[in-house]
Design brief:
heterodimer; A: 257 residues; mainly beta; ten-stranded mixed β-sheet; 17 strands; 6% helix; globular; B: 224 residues; mainly alpha
């Protein structure tokens, strides 16, 4: 419940940082003046910006993390007119630490006018005994465009067969568009979160996710376990879905292939 | 003071809540709730998600938080357009009754500022304030509302034994108190900082899906 995100966090860790901006000399080409990993997060440039496409960066989990007690942070800024796509090379598996207690993962995304950010990482997986507090803050200037995907998987097969329960994921997503709050949502899933497995929250589904689209095309799903929600902001849509597993969830969030 | 609270929280208060199931009708149709145990699990999830969020908004409104800021906070905490519309419709009906019961310029101002209806939780908080109730009372009324309506709806939807249903609510009462206390603490912090960020934003994936699905039905027993 509400208390979950008010556990005092360890001191702020240095964040992995990406800044994408237009090259001043060659218009319309996105360059990455800042690309610095931190802690367990390494950053790799997959593709330089081109006239026809965005610059692409992959998040690489270079150590086993997050473990209970870890504090991980990543901060991305896409400056006016630039285009950036961020993916990850693998799922993020949240694992218990040496002492009981949660881990923290803070994501800060800022997109300027005329810029495009595609944030498309692989899922977060909550292993038995872990508790991850995910906080994502997105700040969009007027005219910023965004595609943001998040997928939460409760446990690996191993967690269910050996422990019978997954870990816990507490996630808060806050989105501002031109100064206006357009989405503020917390989900708390897994053992310890009241009612999480019941018929109001997940009802036996093991994966939940969403795709937030601002200023970019999106399509309404035909399946019953997904819905496209028009948010209070300008041209902002949230595709929400629940599924039995990660693969089915990805299908719901990407639409018919 | 508690006389006004009992009145405000009474299911017979003419605020239109009886026509809504809070997602219970869609959950029943999906085969996810069919007995008292299923109802208890449904209500537990609802209480700790949308119930907690509504209680925080109501307590903040009762504590004097700027209603326009709370309107934005409530909108952002309600991604489903069907649920936003329901909340404003219920807010409008509640405001109409509250203005007659506890005349107050703040309630008149709210009606003028939101002709299409302000969010139900915000109206509940301001009505409580107009009735000289405390933020904790508003939180309790909102938390109670979040489970009482769906429970009553399930009596009708499933033909459940009303004694069993009320026993489910009785067992949930201690949790309801805890949720209201957490919401009241968060609201006090929000009022102190003049920032809605500390207010609970708890949500449940299926409640949003149920609301959208239910809204598309042509034939239904409840409005939401």
């Amino acid at each position: 419940m509400a208390g979950a995100l008010t556990v005092p966090a360890p001191p702020a860790a240095p964040a992995a940082r990406i800044v994408a901006a237009l090259d001043g000399r060659e218009d319309q080409i996105t360059v990455l003046p800042v690309l610095s990993g931190a802690g367990p997060l390494a950053l790799r440039r997959l593709r330089a910006g081109q006239r026809t496409g965005p610059a692409e960066v992959a998040l690489v989990g270079a150590m086993a993390a997050p473990l209970g007690g870890d504090r991980i942070a990543v901060s991305v800024r896409v400056e006016a007119g630039a285009r950036l796509r961020v993916t990850s090379v693998a799922a993020t598996v949240s694992l218990p630490g040496p002492q009981p207690g949660p881990a923290w993962y803070d994501v800060e995304l800022a997109v300027a006018a005329g810029a495009v950010l595609e944030w498309l990482p692989e899922p977060v997986v909550a292993a038995a005994g872990s508790h991850l507090l995910l906080t994502t803050r997105i700040t969009l200037d007027a005219g910023a465009r965004l595609r943001y995907r998040e997928e939460q998987i409760l446990g690996r097969r191993h967690d269910w067969t050996v422990h019978g329960v997954p870990g816990r994921l507490t996630s808060r997503l806050t989105v501002r568009q031109a100064g206006r709050l357009i989405l503020d949502q917390q989900t708390d899933l897994g053992p310890g979160a009241p009612g999480w497995d019941g018929p109001a929250v997940l009802a036996g589904h093991r994966a939940a996710g969403q795709l937030l689209t601002v200023g970019l095309p999106c399509t309404a799903p035909s399946e019953e376990c997904a819905a496209l929600l028009a948010l209070p902001g300008t041209d902002a849509h949230l595709l929400v879905a629940v599924a039995p597993d990660g693969l089915a969830l990805r299908r719901l969030l990407t639409g018919p292939l | 003071m508690s006389g006004a609270l009992l009145l405000l929280a009474d299911g017979r208060f003419p605020a239109g809540g009886h026509a809504h199931s809070g997602g219970a009708e869609a959950a029943v149709k999906a085969g996810l709730v069919h007995d008292a145990d299923g109802l208890a699990a449904f209500l537990t999830g609802r209480l700790h998600t949308t119930g907690l969020t509504a209680a925080g908004l109501a307590a903040a409104a009762a504590g004097g938080f700027d209603p326009a800021g709370l309107d934005e906070a409530a909108d952002a905490r309600t991604p489903s357009p069907a649920l936003r519309a329901t909340s404003r419709r219920l807010g409008r009906q509640l405001l109409r009754a509250a203005r007659v019961c506890w005349p107050d310029p703040v309630l008149d101002g709210l009606a003028a500022a939101y002709p299409g209806g302000a969010h139900q939780s915000v109206v509940l908080g301001l009505a409580a304030r107009a009735a000289a109730l405390a933020p904790a009372d508003a939180a309790l009324a909102a938390a109670h509302e979040s489970v009482n309506g769906p429970a009553t709806a399930c009596t009708r939807l499933l033909g459940l034994d009303p004694y069993q249903v009320v026993a489910v609510l009785a067992r949930l009462a201690p949790e309801l108190d805890l949720v209201a206390e957490a919401a009241t603490r968060a609201a006090a912090e929000a009022v102190r900082r003049q920032d809605a960020q500390p207010l609970p934003a708890a949500s449940a994936p299926l409640l949003d899906l149920f609301a959208e699905r239910h809204n598309a039905w042509k034939v239904r027993l409840f409005a939401s």
